Amino acid sequence: MEKQSFKQWFCSRKVQRRLVIFTFLFIPLVLLLMFTYIPFGKMIQFSFYDMKYLGARTFVGMKNYAEVFERKEIFGSLFNSLYYMGGGVVQLALALFFATMMVFKVKGESVFKASLFFPYLICGIAVGFIFKFFYARGAVLDTILQMFGMNADNIPLWLQDQSINNVSLAATSVWRYTGQNVILFLGAMMSVDTDLYEAASLDGANRWQQFRYIILPSIKSIIVLNIILCVSGCLSAFEPPYVITNGTMGTGTYFVIMNRIAHENQKVGLASAMAIVLLILIILCTIGQKLFFKYVFDDGSSDESKAAVRKRKKAEKARKAMQAKGGAVS
Amino acid sequence: MKKRVLSLALVLSMSVSMAACGNKGGGEVVEVDVPSIDKLNGDDYKDLKADIKILTNRTDIVDTVYKGYADQFNELYPNIKVTYEGITDYEESLTLRLPNGDWGDICFIPSTVEKSEMGEYFTPLGDYDTLDARYNFVTEKTYDDTVYGIPNGGTAGGVAYNKKVWKDAGVTELPTTPDEFLADLKLIRDNTDAVPLYTNFSAGWTMGAWNDYVGIASNADADYKNNKLLHQKDPFTKNEEMSGPYAVFYTLYSAVKDKLVEEDPASSDWESSKGMINKGEIATMVLGSWCVQQFKEAGDNPDDIGYFPFPITVGSERAAASGGNYAYAVNNKASEDNQIAAMLYVKWMLEESPIFDDEGSIPALKGEPLPESLAEFEGVELLSDNPPLKGEESLYDDIRNSAEVLSGDYPVCEVLEAALYGTKELDDLMDEWNQKWTEAQETNGAEITE
């Protein structure tokens, strides 16, 4: 075989193709490594040290991790996430409701869509400041309630009363994220063939039945995705408590406490360990949810539910058995 | 063939990542041969050409007042151009920007830089004994007898109040003990419509300000914070005459418990509180004396705003902490000309600029008169904390950070929460703090002597 020159080799289709792939991938991969994986690796390393941002470090092994679980105010702060999860359920239900309303013909649909989506466009810090004044004593919310005849003495202190302040804060994230969920749901619903609605209404199905048997099964996978995003978002809730109450009055979520430990007390090692514990928790939650949907309902990605598959298989088996029997007889 | 491409890729990506990570120091330290800042003679450097940049936290006046100072300086030294850069979130951004030496020429030393680390970032300005004789508060930024930063004047720790409201409530004499103070606040609650003590809880740092009274105001002892507190057993224990750290937090706790503070601390607002104290809707706020000027400017009644020392008497002595503001420091990685120009500017700011009159603070030069706002401090000794012993320079920070007590704003917020919800008695909370303090003393190897 004739020996190829370097130039020939270099210009060959195979090499050129690899070169193009490589050069296009190179920059994103370098960025990914530099800004995601290397810092992440550093964080894992930091979590084993007793260190500040500046100055000397000492290796302490698992001590930071032990502290995360031992200190009541650190691990206990995860319970505050339950309020945000409750908010998450409300948020998903509301979003499904609005999206379904809009999938059927509604007057002024784009106005509704825009006004629902608008809060999502405001940055979280600004949302925090809006609600700080919204909830302040004698401010917007109190005034509105008084307009409807509520007695000023019966209105709680929204940010101070510990029976309600976490709910107040979770409500701000419901307000902010509902619109985003609506848009996601609506996108999925739009892809449902409209002939199906027509056929269904000819068969006499009402709106609820159309939702239950046409829409819900077709957007199952997007609902599962939203639930997963919502749960991990709840575990890492930060902006509302940080901006509105700074985590005081019992509203400190895990992230707020982590921020306080890292910045006010300069315990970078402990904060890194907290971050890693949270990461593991989020991974566990996601796997748990996946398994839950897979075995209790189905994984949300197939068109047919697990129960239906089982039923069909059973029927097939029965038919085969019948056939075999029939064959033997004849 | 495949391998060649692959190895090329590896080499390339590794060299990029090494370039990204390898550059730790961020520039070399430039040694400058100049006299210490007190002997620096401006006339020797009239021809010096430099562009210098100053970082500041005062974003509100960076383009107005501060620019005015730069212009005045520019008239004296036409070849030195001074620009200011205002930074919101000053402490955190500076902590991140300092290690990479290319941040500018002059900055205010952020509190996250420990004394032992100052030499890595800043030019030595002179030795301690000579500068201490000339300027106030240099102790704060001295390490190993070398001064790295000189505070931009100083403030005294006390309590801001609206004189008119206090008078209307029937208070004739200013309080000297926590219990007298609380009794006065009760008078204000009963006799006027004003909020007796506004905590500004939701701003956070306003609560952290209570920590400043722990050192001198509560003990009348300049050695207390840096030398005694570190080695004291259970410093947060109650004592008979109601002095010491316990007394500071007792004042806050009792005021909250007796409902002498605003109704909804969680929705308090710092910006509007300035106008409210000016108008007489707020009677008292516990903050450093720097706030007086801002309260005066916030409304039509500047003459109603007064300032008195924190009401604790130790034996028969009373003292107030006076401490430096943020300290000017010069970047030791800037070029030689820039460093000299920067030192000239710092010297001019400290000795000739009108900044201390403008801000109502204690001047940087020793022997200059106190500002008018501190008139009530007669008979009260103004002290600043003595430096820690050699080898213990960072011990105070280490202990309070690992104890998570006296550090940041949250521990004081905890005192208010405990009183507000009645979840914890003050004594129990202080016992917890004692315990945390003892543990931190042990982990940081501080001997307990008392």
CATH class of the largest domain in chain A: Mainly Alpha
Relevant CATH superfamily of the largest domain in chain A: MetI-like
Element-level helix/strand string of chain A: HHEEHHHHHHHHHHHHHH
Low-confidence stretches of chain A: none
CATH topology of the largest domain in chain A: MetI-like fold
Biggest sheet layout of chain A: 2 strands, antiparallel
Tally of contiguous helical segments of chain B: 17
How would you sum up the global shape of chain B?
A: globular
Oligomer category: heterodimer
Into which percent range does the helicity of residues of chain A fall?
over 70%
Mean pLDDT of chain A: 87
The CATH class assignment of the largest domain in chain B is: Alpha Beta
The count of strands of chain A amounts to 2
Q: What is the count of DSSP helices of chain A, taking H or I runs of 4+ residues?
A: 16
Structural summary, described in words:
- The complex is a heterodimer of chains A (330) and B (450).
- Chain A has 16 helices and two strands.
- Chain A is mainly α and 330 residues long.
- Chain A folds into two domains: 1-39, no CATH class; 67-120 and 166-310, MetI-like fold.
- In chain A, strands 1-2 form a two-stranded antiparallel ribbon.
- The model of chain A has no long low-confidence stretch (mean pLDDT 87).
- Chain B has two domains: 28-153 and 325-361, Periplasmic binding protein-like II (D-Maltodextrin-Binding Protein, domain 2, 3-Layer(aba) Sandwich), CATH 3.40.190; 154-324 and 378-450, D-Maltodextrin-Binding Protein, domain 2 (3-Layer(aba) Sandwich).
- Helices cover 38% and strands 13% of the residues of chain B.
- Chain B has 17 helices and 15 strands.
- Chain B has helices at residues 2-22, 65-76, 90-97, 118-121, 128-134, 163-168, 178-191, 205-208, 224-228, 245-257, 270-279, 290-297, 336-351, 355-359, 395-403, 410-421, 426-443, and strands at 50-56, 80-86, 106-108, 126-127, 142-143, 146-147, 150-151, 154-156, 158-162, 195-197, 282-285, 305-309, 319-324, 327-330, 381-383.
- In chain B, the strands form five sheets. In chain B, strands 10-11-9-12 form a four-stranded mixed β-sheet. In chain B, strands 3-14-7 form a three-stranded antiparallel β-sheet, covered by helices on one side. In chain B, strands 4-6-5 form a three-stranded antiparallel β-sheet, covered by helices on one side.
- The termini of chain B are far apart.
- Classes of the chains: A mainly alpha (330), B alpha+beta (450).
- The interface between A and B is large, with 40 and 39 residues.
